[in-house]
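ok so I'm stuck.
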Amino acid sequence: MNAHGILQIVVYFLIILALAKPVGSFMANIFEGKRTFLHPLLGWIEKLVYKVCGINPEEDQKWTTYALAMLIFSLVGMVLTYALLRLQGHLPFNPQGYGSKEMTPDLAFNTSTSFTTNTNWQNYTPENTISYFSNTISLAIHNWMSAATGIAIAIAVIRGFARKSASGIGNFWVDVVRGTLYILFPLCVIGAVLMMAGGVPQNVLPYATGNTVEGAKQTIGFGMVASQEIIKMLGTNGGGLFNANSAHPFENPNNFINLLQIVAIFVIPAGLTYTFGKMVGNTKQGWAVFAAMSVMFLGGAFTCLAAEQAGTPQLAKAGVQTVVSSGQPGGNMEGKETRFGIGASTLFATITTDASCGAVNSMHDSFTPVGGFVPLFNLLTGEVIFGGVGAGLYGMLMFCVIAVFIAGLMVGRTPEYIGKRVQKFEVQMAMLATLILAANILGWTALSVNMHYPPGDAKTFTKDQAADEAKLPLLAMVNHVGNSDPSNYEGDTVNNMNNSGAHGFSEVFYSYASAVGNNGSAFAGITGNTPHYNFTLAIAMLFGRFFMIIPLLAMAGSLAAKKAVPASAGTFPTDSATFVGILICVVIIVNALTFFPALSLGPIVEQFQMQAGKTF
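replied:
not stuck anymore, here's the structure
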């Protein structure tokens, strides 16, 4: 590691620490129905929405009703998005003329599922597939919907711990409206203005054509980037307007915008920990959760930085300078933006996989085995290290229930958390969510690596596909090794995995971990736009989103109905450093035991191979 990289991590963490309390306190006031400084400006819109949509803000829903409303909201959005994507050729704001040929049925299913579940996995090249209308209406609207849904679910789970002898856990429609209007909207307005001021474009101009330094023609895409970029970060969505995502100079033009993006990813998840503490009446409980998340975040960030900054034995043997100097960054710079370097790249990679964001400013596929292990393991935790908006908190509360259950067994008492007895049903729901996630990741990975084509479907270019491929000379050079003439692409067969062995396995494993964790980032050596991957990844996303939410809502409903249990001499304190340590151990051990065999086949064995000189 070097001082510059360490300083970036420390400064970033201090910013998040400073924002957690004010943001969390504001959100608690919003969801407790208290008046804030934004109500004079936006309160009339909230009342108008209730009136137009027939929402009774006083209605308190049982967990089953809350869950049903959430599922209906998500399903309608998903079906509408699928239809709009397939019909994009007949819709306005489409100067490039993209249609159903670019958005095939299996790809449209994968994409609509991806954005509905807050995953934003993109099996397509955005600037060559999606119209402006599709980007802003079909997809960007889900950045708001899925983010507001995640926040609402987190608040409902918090109410399960905060309420006593209650039959309901809130009103889904009210929570979504308030989350969108008072939290996402004002933050996005401020963020979008800052992004435009920092050089991020916002337009609907036709694509331009330029000449590269090699003399080739390059198509330069545009779009309403700033407005979509800020909600993709604040909502921990991650889907960008360009294939290079946050490594693209239009999405991420400089270090100021890079810092703004990574702060936006964590600000709401970090704030929700304080919201939790305030709503349950004990802010120390919220800080305990924040502390557990922070320790794991810092551990991952420093580990990833150290691995990438150290480089590899192969680089050193080849004469590449791996030591930092005034003129060289050292380390492993493969796949990283020279504008940001190793420090900002590894920090971004850690943050985006701690959260369910998926935006990237470097290629995780090019990281060293240990460097790539960190984002992969972050995904396998269920992304509870701050995590997605809402999803990180309710995922961590699931582990809190498991942790107090284990602690209760150790001291021989019925476990208690926030004044509620944690009994059989709550533990069953928490474990059900954990097992469903693990079964999906491992099951789909096993299926894919054992398919006839290793792994997945090879792709043979048709005449039209060859013509499209010829527009991207750099991509063509990568995919058509030995065939650099664009006129000869027709009939070429390109396998959808560029690497075999341990690294190839990691690519498949990472894909399903990302899908089930609703993250959306990828080890980019795998081509996911095949019928097999489009379908299986979509199913993994649906299970990862809803088969975690429903058990946790059931748990929240059960807890809300319980009476408060007075603390006694035998009550295990859950706002202490001891509990923070137990919680961290539970998260790590549960996931290590579940996924260690698969990790051993991927990054762990690859590290040994690298040290033996057999890879990299």
